[in-house]
Amino acid sequence: MQIEKSFVVEATPAEVWALLTNPHRVVRCVPGAAIEGQIDDQTYTGTITVKVGAISLRYKGKVRFDRLDVTERCAELVASGRETRGKGGADARVTSRLLERGPRQTEVSAVADLTVTGLLAQMGRGMVQDVGDQLFETFTRAVRTELEATAAAFQEARKGLPAEA
If phi over 0 gives left and psi between -120 and 50 gives alpha, with beta otherwise, what is residue 147? Predict the structure, then answer.
């Protein structure tokens, strides 16, 4: 199943790139996700809990940055996880691209190729799509909040400094 989403954020491409390629920052934006360890410079272990109706599914697995191209502003990551209490799993390849839309305005587009097995797969494509939409909306709000907090802290730190020539 493929899911395509995009959103615009009030931040420069460099600011968005710094957030999206830093696992410890971006995980704070993913609902129910946590980093538990690091295997190497590009690979991390962790968990994510996904709520589907009255059911909560917890997955344990790893995520790896397969490609980070700062020039093209393109990042590819591969994630895989297995249910902690069931026999199901999920695998995803997510490609994100950044496009400058204006001063301090960046469009983030993401394409996720997702494969699910087990209980989540039994719920059907529509349910998986709904859960994906909800997760993406929550992620988008959190990214905006994170970037706005960073921008506000930067502006506060600059107060009282002499103007640049």
Answer: alpha
Q: What residue has token string 């917890």?
A: 58
Domains annotated for the chain, with CATH where assigned, are 2-150 (3.30.530.20)
* Eight-class DSSP state of 164: P
Tens-level pLDDT at each residue, the chain (165 residues): 888 999 999 999 999 999 999 999 999 999 899 999 999 999 999 999 988 878 888 999 999 999 999 999 999 999 999 999 988 999 999 999 999 999 889 999 999 898 888 887 787 778 778 888 888 888 888 988 988 776 655 556 656 666 554
Burial letters 20-42, b for 16+ CB under 10 A, else e: beebeebebbbbebebeeeeeee
What are the angstrom distances between the C-alpha of 13 and each of 10, 87, 161?
10, 40, 25
Q: What is the pTM of this model?
A: 0.82
